[in-house]
Structures are given as C-alpha cells and as structure tokens.
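hey m, so remember when u said the tokens were messed up on ur end? i reran from scratch. heres the input so u can diff it against urs
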Amino acid sequence: MEKIPYDEILDIQRKVDIVDVISEYLHLEQKGKNYFAICPFHDDHNPSMSISKEKQIYTCFVCGASGNVFNFVMNYEHISFAEAVLKVAQKAGIGLSVKNISKTIVKESKYDKFYKMFEIANKYYQNNIKTVYGKAASDYLNKRGITPAEIKEFEIGLSLNDNNVNKLLKSKGFDESDIVDIGLCGKKDNFIYDTFRNRIMFPLHDSTGNVIGFSGRIYNGEDDSKYVNSKESVIFKKGKLLYNYKRAINYAKEEKQIIVVEGFMDVIRLSTIGIKNVVATMGTAITKDHADLLRRLSKNIILCFDGDKAGQKATLAAIEVLEKIDITPKIIRLEEDLDPDDYVIKKGKEAFLNHLKNPMSLLQFKIDIEKKKTDFNDYNDISNYVNNIAGELEKINDKVVYELTVKKISKETGLDVETINSLISNIPKKERKIITKPKSIKKNKYEKAEEYLIYYMLKKEDVILLYQNKVSYLTNKKLAMIAIKILEFYEQKHYINVTDFSLFLQDEDELIKEVLRIDGLNMPDEVDDKVIEEYIKTIDEGILKREIEKTKNKISMEQDTIKKVILLEKLATLKKKECK
C-alpha cells in the first residue's frame, strides 16, 4: 500500500498545533512550557501525558505512549494513519490530494455501513420536522422553549408512521438483516417495520461524532412509553455513551468544568440559557467508561441530577465511581424534586445560574444527607449522625476546613470538639493505591553506547555520517531499524530533527515510541567526535564479545572434530582482536 507523500504530511504538521488538536479530545493544563493531560491510553489517575508545543509531540511518562499529532488521532480514534492525516487536515481546513489519500486509506471498517445507515436515517428525520407533517412536533418543541436554533444544533428530527426508513435504506442497497440487527427496524411475521414512529427524534452520537442510536419522545400523548431508545448494538452501548460529549468538548475547555445531568432534555434546556458545557448519562448510572470520558474533559465535574430521591441515589453512585479515579465532584441539588429541564422552565435562568455559581462540596452534600435523617433531640440519632460522617471528615486535607467543619458539628450536636476528633482518629486509615512507573531495565555499557549513538544521530548530521562510515551494525534490532530509517531520511532530506523524523516513520508506533524515549534521555546537547568515536568503539567491542560467546556455545555443542577445530581457530582469532 502506497504511503501518503512525506512532504504533504510535513506541510499539514507545520500548519497545525498538536496542543490545539489534542485539546479537542482531552482537558489540558499548562505547566511551564508543556501541557499535561490524563493519558487516554492507560488507566491514568493523574495527568501523566506531556504535550510539547515546541517539539509537537506527546509522551506519557507512565505507559510510554508517544508520537506526533497524527499518531495521537490514529490511536485515540482507532483509525489508520492515513485516515488520521486526513482528519487532522480537515480540522485545519487544509486540502489533501484525494488521489494520494485514496491509495492509502484502508478499506471501510465493518461498522461503517451501520454509521451510514444512522446518518441517512438522521437526515431523513431532520427533513421530516421541516415539512408540513412536522408542524405539530415543531409547535410542541417551541411551546417547551426549544427554538429552531436548538432544533438545528441538536439535529432534532421526527419519525412518521410511514415505514419509510426501512424503504429508504433498502433503496440505498443496505441488507435487510443489517437494518434489523442495528435496531432501526423490527421484524415480525416476515414484515419489516420502522422502530420509531410518530416520535420526536434525538440522535445519539459517539465521542467522535458518529450517530450510533436514537431516542424517540412522544409529543401527541398517543403512547404510554414517553421515550423509546435504540436497542444496544455493536456500536451503541449506553454505558459507554455520554449525550452531547462531542459538542461539549470545547465548551468544557473554555469553562474549565463539565456539568453532568441525567437526560438529553436537560442538556438542551441548559443550552437555551447559554450553558453548553453539559453532558448527560441518559438516565443510566455512571459507569467506569463514563468516568474516563469525563476526566478527559475536565477534573472539575459538577453533578446536577434530578432533585428527587432517585437523583440523590444516582449522585451518590456517581460519586463512588468518580472517587475511584481520584476525582472529587461538586454537587447541585435542585429544590422541589425538579430536574434541570423543569427547574429552568419553572424557576428561571437566574435561579439555576445561582446554583451553578455556588455548588455544594462533596463533604457538605454527604453531611446534608445525614442531617436530613437525624432527629437532633434523639441521642441515638446524634450518635449515628456523628459516626456516619466521621469517615468523610477523616478525608479532609485542608486543616482550616477540617476545624471549621468539626466546630460546626460540635455546635449542632452538643458534643465537644475533642470527642469528635477522637472518633475520627480511631478510623482505620485506608491504604492508598500507589501507581508507580514501570521499572527501567538496567543496561550494560554496550547497550547504552548504542542508545547514545542513536541519540546523537537524531541531533547531528556529522554523527549520521560517522555511523554510515564506521558502524557495521547494531545488536539491538529496534535501534538498528531506527538507524536505517535515519540514514534513509537523511539521504532524502539532507537534514535531521526528531519531529520531522517521527512524521517520516508514519504509523510505525513502536519505532516512534523508541525514538521519543531516546530523545528524552538526559544527555548533553553538545558532544565532540572523540565521545562518538568511543561509543562506536564500545559498540564494536560488544559485537565482538557477542561473537566470542556465540562461538564458545557452538564449540560446546559441536560433535564433529574437524568442525570443532575450525571453530577453535575462529575463537582464537576473535580473542586476538579482543586483546588489541
């Protein structure tokens, strides 16, 4: 398969900024001249991925994931290198030769046909709501304060009772069994029918923007089921999906926080009052996958679930999942058991904004729950109250917050501060899970010499020429391949730098990772030829030493006397070289 021309890739790389691209996927924090993010390629708890604006590369200090902007998009979205180049070019508004890209992009994934089916159905539903048949649905949405602007932004559509999705997809050549399997249609007694009929349609997108399902809402009171969702399929898993995730990425970055609600109507309602850094769990409990998606957006998470008891229970469950990945959310609890959608309609924009400006701390939320269950005239209730919140008080790291909280509880309960402190000090300390970096493997002087030589080959043209003229080969196969690639790059381009060389390697992830690891070695920038000559001499010694050991092993295994004599003579010659 022909590769995309290097010069085209280099041109795109020089016109984009890796920080801008990665920030569309992850929440970044600047520390010094670099940016840091939660690494999406391992179970990361603290920002361990560094993004260098200067070098235009990323590196995770824990799992070792590294590369350039194209490698990041390729590995994050699980697409080919060529597709990643095209996607980055499109993000930057850069034209790429269709002739070249068509030669490189691999054949469609097995799921592409499903994405296309949902895309067609989505456009069909969107068109329906604009027609005369959609007037009642549009009027319904408008009465609920959902304007044409929100209808367009959230791609809201309408399913009719015409069975046309089935017919439309068949006319496009899609297989009947695929249409049923993916959930757009059902089948009964050999009759194929549309799953969604006479419902306002809300498309559900994955984290990369593909439509992977729908939720259909009644608007004319003809059905007992308020919502009908797409069935789970190979591309649609509710436990892995956050509604509005793709749209919320940039808003979460701007606001430096992400708000989590339960339903997509909550998301749309908050959008109407200018709050767009919002995602929804679609009524399901927060999962580990949800939590991983959230921490990519921001460490500052606000949970704003429905104001009833079920919402409180969902909030507690979400807190438990988020705490496992070292995230402490803040909480909004809405009065009168209202959800955000109804709250804004009933109480207004300013009332909700006031909640948003003053969210509850996790500690206050848990104390309030216990307080509501407590009769402060009952000694047993008071005892249960203090014992139940002691565990939460023990987690407080801020001394001032701790003392103020304990004094407040002392005043509420009549217990003295010392008694409360003694209860807290008797709580067994939980062992903290310590995440350590993988242990580095100790290397001998021969292995180090090979690494150091590659390091300076990546920095200096004269070292490349010394390698070319004086080194026979490297014993480390990966380093040997990198050396060959450096020679190839230098012969074509007549210069060397790590950023451009990593682009030259394209999708050879393991080589790129090794190049960036070596580039990160703490070595002096300047080095004279004598040092390089010493590396080369050490490498030659290592090669000779290996050859001697290999010959000794052959001698010990050889049964034929004549062959053994030949090997002994070879060994003697090698040892003479070693002594020189």
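this time it looks ok to me. The chain has five domains: 6-104, 112-236, 245-359, 365-425, 445-579. if urs says something different then somethings off w ur setup not the seq
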